[in-house]
Amino acid sequence: MTEAVQTAARAMRRLSARTLLRVFWRSLFLQAAWNPRGMQNLGFAFAMQPALRELYPDPAARARAAERHLEFFNCHPYLAAAIVGGAVRLEEEVARGLRDPRSVSAFKSALGPPFAALGDGFFWLALRPAAALVAAITEPYLGLWCVLIFLAIYNGVHLAARAWLFFAGYRRGEGIVAVVSRAHVPQSTGLVKGCAAVLAGAIAGRSVLIAGLPNRPWHAVLIGVLILAAVAFLPRVRLAAALYIALALGLVLGGGFL
Amino acid sequence: MLRGLRGECSWRRFNTICIPRLYNRGVNVLAPAGTTDLIGAAVVAALIGGLAAVERKGALQLMLSRPIVLAPLLGWALGDPRGGLLLGVPLELIFLGGVNLGGSLPDNETLLAAALTSAVVPAGIAAGTGVDPPLAALALALLFPLALAGRRLERATEVRNAELSDLALARTHGGDARAVRLNLRGLLLPFAATAAICFCCALISPLFAATRIHCPPRLVSGLTGAWHAVWALAAATAIRAIRDPRAMVLSAVAFAAVLGAAALLKALP
């Protein structure tokens, strides 16, 4: 093959939209085989497989590329979409001979931990509690519709973020860091956590009111005291122990066994 | 009544000996179509519970496996979505702070929600009370250890997944790029284990129904109080789940505002 033909072949190695969508779909299974040794390594390699199949027609080269992606990888499963997208872009460049294969590993290991911290803080510790608390506080008024409220709030943000991060990662490659830093994730996290804290306090107040109905003010007082005690002692008492203590107290006081 | 069940261990013996005994004592603890309905409910519970276990960590993570979604969904499949919701909301709040960060494992809220709903919803229908606070409190007290057992199940799954990862690495090293498909095998163990537990929980629902029917009024009152206490704990864990320095102050203000508004509304003519 002449130099010109090789250059043309390299230039054509861009992935089809269908392949990109398949990679995105497979990235939703990133943690299917989560393990303490490689963490999301197998999931990452599984997500990359459609791209590698298209980029490396030679089975031996494809297996080498797959082996590269079986190295240790850990990130938040949603934010990892950006790294998957970026890794696809870098693999295209590796397949074209424009980049060293080790740069893909360096990209993954450099972005995994900071993106994990961002994702854990926003999705697990802010958005999910806030969405659940909105659903819990609207449950007496909306009934079963509160479940849809929860799913709409959470997945509206989650799926949009995941798709945006994947395609932004693919378009920008290593430039994804700048894109994510402009998304103001830490500021949003603080705001959402503040809203969640207000909702949690309101639910505690509502629990006291419900316990006092109908005309049982002492029940309301007892439940209020129980909430305050639980807030104070929960960090020191395991959840299972706290639950059984609460059940026993409720049983004894509610049944008049004292 | 429960004394009559002692010593019976197999499902066949349960069908042939226990259920007629329950009927003879004037207790109908099965759904209208009897054991057929019960087995059908157990199969449905197993399927939905198993899929939820897979969705919890391994696939999609659309939060369909959270108690606030799973319990009403499974309740709907078993015939009482509102009963499922009654269980799901406090469970969601209790496990609000449970986060899977890196290698740390929280209690398995999905397994507990699925098992509890599988046992309580058919029991409520059979007892004629629906899912009420006494039944919910009783079942939660008995089944809560499943949340802790779920954590062990997850640890076992991780060990199995490490073997899959090693196998995939060895095969790709040998030139088989398709070995990465072993990833999906990691979903099998959580599915199978959770499905089996939900199946068993649905099968023991007649025992919960019989117990609920025979609860004396004083115990019913006590269990209702216990459910209020569960709600109190749920509210407290929800406050604790917000890991932010301002959370305590904001929650205290909202707590006081709700009580103040209620007092004001009561004082109004």
Quick structural overview:
The complex is a heterodimer of chains A (258) and B (269). Chain A has 258 residues and is mainly alpha-helical.
What is the element layout, followed by pairings?
The complex is a heterodimer of chains A (258) and B (269).
Chain A: H1 3-12, H2 17-27, H3 41-55, H4 59-68, H5 80-95, H6 102-142, H7 145-172, H8 176-181, H9 185-211, H10 217-233, H11 239-254
Helix pairs in contact in A: 2-3, 2-5, 3-4, 3-5, 5-6, 5-7, 6-7, 6-9, 9-10
Chain B: H1 11-24, H2 35-57, H3 67-78, H4 81-94, H5 109-127, H6 133-143, H7 145-173, H8 188-203, H9 205-213, H10 217-241, H11 247-267
List keywords for this structure.
heterodimer; A: 258 residues; mainly alpha; 11 helices; elongated; B: 269 residues
General shape of chain B: flat
Range of strand content of chain B: under 5%
The largest pleated sheet of chain B is described as:
none
Number of domains of chain A: 2
Main β-sheet of chain A, in a few words? none
Fraction of helical residues of chain B: over 70%
Mean pLDDT of chain A: 89
- Give me the oligomer status: heterodimer
What Rg of chain A is obtained from the alpha carbons, in whole angstroms?
25 Å
Number of helices of chain A: 11
Number of helices of chain B: 11
User: Largest interface, with Cβ-Cβ < 8 Å?
Assistant: A-B, 99 and 101 residues
Quote the distance from N terminus to C terminus of chain B: 53 Å
Structural class of chain A: mainly alpha
| Uncertain stretches of 5 or more adjacent residues of chain A | none
Pairing-aware structural class of the strands and helices of chain B?
Answer: mainly alpha
The percent range for helix content of chain A is over 70%
- How would you describe the shape of chain A? elongated
Number of distinct beta strands of chain A: 0
Tally of domains of chain B = 1
> Which range does the strand content of chain A fall in?
under 5%
